[in-house]
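Appendix B. Chain record.
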Amino acid sequence: MKSINKTLALIAIASSSAAFAASDFDTLDVDGNGAISQAEASVDAKLMSMFSELDTDQNGELSKEEFSKA
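Structure tokens predicted for this chain:
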């Protein structure tokens, strides 16, 4: 019974993590303005770690072109 509970718990954790992992531009662009702000990117740790490198024009947002280089 314990192994079933552990298995179900792992499945639940994996599912919830997948639900919050946003990896496409349109999903991350919550306000639909055509750019991903740092606040919008904050839901994706990997994207946040690369944000300043990807933001080549240093305007504080990622365009589709900049995001495509991720």
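Further analysis of this model is presented in Appendix C.
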